[in-house]
């Protein structure tokens, strides 16, 4: 059935999404190369503008230039709009695809109980878009108010600068895009509980994803009604943040370039802040390039897993990792079905999780190999930059601005692929009809 | 049913295997610390002797000392016996467990067709042991004859030395244990097609595993009768060796410390030889420590995947990786069953593969983090040593002799765990009965 309609049904949505993102990136790049976007004289390099636009639309925050020195107020506004568009776009898009997947699966497996078995219509799109905008703007407004007021009260900033810094960083934090326009970055705020706390809270909330936020808003008083998706994301966030905090604090405790010079409450705050950023905010209050190689490796793993689905977080997602983890638990306990928080995982979801994970591992390893060959940098640092880009985190050991154009171009592709790849792949896998095939006899190879 | 019989049935075989291996390691260590085992005056350090014994029994070849300088003829004979015992032990043990698993599964799923549904008896054990001994000694004899004659004809060795070098390295190569007792190692033979070719061939053949070797011996003329296990291992070996060879030759082509100074046929031979060693021989004709970081990372992946099951190769095994890969292929092609070479994988085998892989990733990452923290070495090198130990490969960037005792102890545990862990875990997962549990309602989280 390779009719035009069938083809459009198969490739249509993905193509639309790719074209829409490419258009936004092109528009953003065009604005950013204009001289009116650049701080100081002249205009920006096209690769720098393109890199910034893709980094913003993919809500990453990785940069080839120093944001406040390169971009003036107009340029920063372009970044702000691109980030907001990218964040809302993914929240809406992924939620719609998730709904379509759920309905298609419900319809297919004839398990229709609570969800009505019907297609995704205009009403759904409107509901998701307005819901995402309302949640985003509401939380961002609270964050902007807190940050702006605090910057005004405690910093040497004019009221206008303080307000702009508050708005900009609140939007960046909620959308998990690690752009910073403070003149000396966030490092001076390593011991500031308000700046660190508000930004960490915004990043954590944003990384949960729209379905979780929507459910928490509607059912926050009745946790027993929460879906498996929400429970996996919340528990995953808690566990990964705790593991990351403990590890960073312990390993970096006495290290001269990072937590060493700080007093112990600041060490704890900085460790917590940095652990949160792997899910996938991308801000830093310590020098990432000075962290121990072991810390970078642990952060690699946390970034690769990422945050909640259908949100601004990247990585393979806490749910994908959770499915693999609970398959392991079920195997260890000799259970024939995989149970997660009182629900059984449907057949096939573990295969989708395997596929997403294997493809992501292949992309990350392949990119790391390529970056190492291109740059001759240590493989540990190239792995960190590759995972940071692919998982749209935006943390950097500081080498990205000095990388050759080929390496920067690869990171740029990784950000774009990391933002759209998993969601498009997972939805493509989930919604297809599976043709009945001739059944071969079973045979088991030896495992392990 | 926690009766003593049930407990023995559950934990019995694993405990027996662990005790047997521990006994062999203890005996080997006791012999190696004797002054009569050491070249030159004095006696060896206990940690060095223990490390050598575990490295030999686990057929790894990782060393904390220079083998020919540390051990005299008696010490080298102890290593030879430990390697042969370790290699035969795993071949027999894993094959028996594999047979038990196959019969148990056949019995349980009532699919008994060709295999008789009965337990594993004395006759099976005798058949496997004699089969493994016959295959091992036969191939080792051919290898020893070729290598010994060539050493005698072309080297400056006495006939006795040439014969001993031939026997020792043939046994090492077939058992995938990378110990070398040639005075200047294998690097001088980088361009020698006979030494490189025979050792590579022995390593490749040994890495296939006993079930594949046994099947090839009986059915080598009728490939259509080969099992999925054999096809996965053969294809996996071909693909991984090809990928490794191409990558090493291309990346190292002009590198001064490795392939740079060699003429092009020698570059190809050396690249092929080094690629073969990741599956998991552990010999080297180029300086592993001088390889590009990207090459080490690619070798990490190849070593982690490893060779065939129920043999002397380590890693998660080509079959485990093959199952994950074909799950991905089935997902991409929207198939509801996972078909591999004309057979369908039974339900549950993908979950076992997930479990083995996740546990192995966790062990490798955890060990790399620990080694990096302990030693302050670059994370890339520590990952290589950790994977080399866990996958019982034995390749080294050269840092192992200089590592602190805590790091050496960790590598020692990794070799032991890597040798016995996957097989015991996989067999434990496969043979247990799965209790019928209350079935929860299904619910699907969002993946990707
Ligand atoms: K980010
Ligand atoms: K080995």
Automatic annotation (TrEMBL), chains A, B:
The chain crosses the membrane at residues 12-34, 46-65, 77-102, 132-153, 194-213, 233-254, 301-330, 351-374, 409-431. Keywords: Cell membrane, Ion transport, Membrane, Transmembrane, Transmembrane helix, Transport. It holds the Pfam family TrkH. It comes from the Bacteria. It is a multi-pass membrane protein. It is found in: Cell membrane. PANTHER family: KTR SYSTEM POTASSIUM UPTAKE PROTEIN B, TRK SYSTEM POTASSIUM UPTAKE PROTEIN TRKG-RELATED. This is TrkH family potassium uptake protein. The lineage of its organism: Bacteria, Bacillati, Actinomycetota, Actinomycetes, Micrococcales.
